[in-house]
Amino acid sequence: MWDDPRHAASLTQEASRLREEISSVADMQKRTADAVDLGAMLEGENDDGMSAEVSAELDSLEKELDRRELELLYSDPYSDHPAIIGIHAGAGGTDSQDWAGMLMRMYLAWADSKKLTVEFLDESPGDEAGIKSATLRVSGPRVYGLLKSERGVHRLVRISPFDAAARRHTSFALVEVTPEIEDAVDVDIDPKDVREDVYRSSGAGGQHVNKTSSAIRLTHVPTGVVVTCQNERSQHQNREVAWRVLRSRLLTLQQAAHAEHVAELRGESMPAEWGSQIRSYVLQPYTLVKDHRSGAEVGNAQSVLDGNLDPFMEAYLRWSAREGAAA
Question: What's the CA gap between 12 and 269, in Å, rounded?
Answer without folding.
Answer: 43
